[in-house]
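Two quick folds needed for the group meeting slides. Do the first one here.
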Amino acid sequence: MWISVIYLWTINVLTLLAFGWDKARSRRRRRRVPERRLLWLAALGGSPAALLGRWMFQHKTRKRGFTMWVLGIFALQAAMIYVFVVSFPAK
């Protein structure tokens, strides 16, 4: 149990840092973090941080396709958590 909590905290911190780093790089017109990498971080469990990073940094908000992917990943992960919690209730 604790390993999964530590993993989720770590992946979410890394995702938030990646979004912040990408925004800072975009302001300086430097080489950016690829969208594919940002989406993979979200898919690996960092979707809450991806949504938070988009809001905090006002980043990638105009990219409709990217937004749909992040929201889809978040919805899928939320549904999986719901099914897991309902299927295996705490005793």
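Then this one, please, same format:
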Amino acid sequence: MSAPDLAALGRLLGAPEVAWLVERVRRRLEDGQGSDAAPLAGRVILASPSHDQRVAATRLFGPPRGRGDRLTVDLALVERTLRDGPWPAGLADAVTALTGPVRVRGREAARAAAAWRIAAAALRPAWEAHPALRAWADEWAAGGGFKRVARAEARRLGLVVGDQAALAGVGLGLARNAARVLAALPVAGELRAVLAQRLLGDAHGLDPGRPLAAVVGPAACALTARAEPRPALEELGVYASGLASTVLGLGIAARARPDPEPAAAATQAMLSAARAAPLALSLTLDQVLTGVVAPLEAGGTVFVCENPSIIESAAAGLRARARARSRSRGPAGHVTRAGGATEAGGAASGAARACVVCLSGQPSAAATRLVSRVAAAGASVLYHGDFDWPGLRIASALSRHVNWTPWRFAAHDYEALAGRAADFPGRLRLSGHPAESPWDPELARAMARRGLAIEEEAAVELLVADVLAAW
């Protein structure tokens, strides 16, 4: 048998006039046709061939079949021409030599499908820890989520991924890391960077924008029914920052601790001074977690509002009352009360009976921890927010952390305010997707009927009066 002659093969099949034939043969090879046991056979047809294409086919393989606008070439004839001439290995091998290795689509697809199945199975530890994630993972992968994050990870790593099987290999690494993180949740309050370093060896592994975060974040949402990854992870005990998560508090009492650490001592002094003033105080999650926040006495009231203007107005009301009491003090420094009784001290005297916590929107980790802490001894938690769809969602989000009862936040309260606001020229209309009000189903229905949004500030006088009465 003669040796292969690449130059002669190029003259035979490398000319532009027969490129169409080589391309058709390559397609058949990609479809899994052609082997030593079953060489390529059959005919290929070119519609509307050019004059040069007809001449080239005639010169190479003899007068082709077909007339008019069709050119037909018999592959068995091409196979014999090559085997008897410049390329004994035959047509399939010749096309591979000219155009490069051929990936058989069916085989490639099967190999890729098997590789993706292996990658998906690597999430098993997460399913076992949280069975609800199995259905989520199947839906997420079916929607292309797995492949998208694998491509993003390949780009981040600077990898050139040539096929789906190789991409699935990148996905496998992501799935293993995601499973390691998800199986460890929930945790008892851990910074995201610390958790990532502990479990992955990369403190930035779960940072927003990282492909791994695009797996863990949606999975956390599926576990908690939260719409966004940050609050979902916070609910599972993972915090982006102990400094970035903050909450406004008014009248938060400090618990005495023997020999407190410097951070606890500083927080203790801040709380005591702010309560005595009284001033609203912004606390970080780190400060809430120092352990110096004191629970209210049993029977006390934790007022929770949505907007900072409410807590500011309550603080102003308390200061105004303190000034009025100061002016009515007797000579011994006591406040004269009706009937001649006296009360020593000012706003901070005695055990704390009430405090105010402001969420400033969706409940942060600092806010939920603070409310839970001040209510831990049996104080009641009352909540008020905006009468709009986001306001109802915020209330529902808070209920996943603490039990609360409506604070002028029921259907009849809405109707009373709506009656007053009906004549306002700049009244707000409800917008966005409707929400439910499980604590009072009639509230959401009343809001839908009127279509009117009422901001929390519309009730500020009533809310401040409630705080003053409980203080």
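Slide caption for protein two: The mean pLDDT is 86.
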